[in-house]
Every structure is written in structure tokens, then in C-alpha cells.
Amino acid sequence: MNTEQPSQLEPFPEDGWSRVLAVVAHPDDLEYGAAGAIARWTGMGRWVGYLLASRGEAGMDDVPPEEAGPLRVAEQLESARIVGVSDVEFLDHPDGVIEESTALRRDIALAIRRHRPEVVVTINHHRWWGPGMMNQADHRNVGNAVLDAVPAAANRWLFRDGGVEPWRGVRLVAVAGSPQPTHAVDVSETLETSIASLAAHRRYLESLGDHPMADPDDMLRGMALQTAQRFGGRPATAFEVLRM
């Protein structure tokens, strides 16, 4: 029997930066864990902006896209407000069929240039969430586009038509939901806020029915306590940190 314990997670480096751009595929992507860290950072006075590749219009089985898109945008704006984020942008790539394209990379790179973050947060770009849990294509494609957009944003000869000066200041990319986490953020004081942030996606959660992901309190508290086992017993959210 394998009795080896999982390695401990390092504290997320929180010194030397002031701006975060979080780039994900859909409304609710950040609320499944990362929002607890974001609430902590905005509470520390850091600026955080959200960039969403789609409006999540294809994400509700019981609501047609033309109704679901505006509904999910409204819920995302409220969800962001709860954790102290007021800058939220939607790129309008088509939900469910987001491509890892040059166009997506350009959109993200130009946003990085505009907002000039030192930290970029994104969603899991790996094929799996964990053993037996396959990741969705939109998440993978957006996550991989982010990893390519960071160096593209620094290259003045790429996407020159965007009219924004290059930005070479991204120090870290933090991948939320990665099956290979390296660091964690203590969310002891922001866990309740993160639960409220996910709960703000009320109509979306209703559409999930009895799926485990439809219970914000149970889902997020369980995730934070699971991460705590690798973080000195403190409720936390985990990231795979890539240094740029």
C-alpha cells in the first residue's frame, strides 16, 4: 500500500505586485475556488480585473442561449462585485466552441497590455481536473491561449494593430483548478465571501439540478478543507504557479 503523503503547498507569493488580470472561459469559472483568493487580494488593496472569453450562453440546458447570455453576464457582474472586482470584460468568443486561435491570443495579449498586471490568473489548461475527471475544451483552450498571450504581450512586433505598448511585467501565471498545484492562498477570512460570490450565479446553479457543483457552501468549503491538508490545516485555494 502506498502511504506516501502528498507534498505540501507553498504559500502564494504576495509581495512585489499590485495588479491581477484573471482570464477564464465562462461566467462561474473563477467562482469555483479562485474567488476566495481574489477577495483576499482586493481586501489587501490590489487591483483585480476579469476577462471572460465568452458570456456562457451555451451553459444552461434549460435556458436558450439568447436568454442565458445576458442572464449569466448579470450574475457574473454581481459575483465579481461581491469579491471587490468592478472591471469585467467579455470577449464574445462563442461559448462551447472557443478555439485556441491567434484571434483569442491577440485579444488576451491586448488586454494584458491595457491592464498591465504582474499576475495573471487563468483556468486549468490540462486535459484532466484529476484522476477520472476530464477537463472541458473551452477551459483548456483559454488556459493555453493565456500561456501564449503573456509572451506575445511582451513582444512589440506582435499584434501591432492593437495600438497598445507592449507589457513585459507579468511575473506569474496562476492556474486555478490545476491537477498539479504548487502553491496555495489562505482563504480563512474570505471563504464565506467566495461562497456568496458563487451563490450569486443563482439561476445558473438552479439549472444544474442536483449536481454536486450546485451547492456553493458544500462545494467550496470541501475544496478549501481538502487543500488545507496540504497547507498546514488552513482553508485555502490552490494554484499551479508558473514563473514567466
UniProtKB/TrEMBL annotation:
Signal peptide: none
Keyword check for Zinc-finger: no
Keyword Transmembrane helix attributed: no
Source superkingdom: Bacteria
MF annotations from Gene Ontology: hydrolase activity, acting on carbon-nitrogen (but not peptide) bonds, in linear amides
Keywords carried by this UniProt record: Zinc
Pfam family, one: PIG-L
GO biological process: glycoside metabolic process
Entry-linked InterPro entries: GlcNAc_PI_deacetylase-related, LmbE-like_dom_sf
Protein name as annotated: LmbE family N-acetylglucosaminyl deacetylase
Organism: Stackebrandtia albiflava
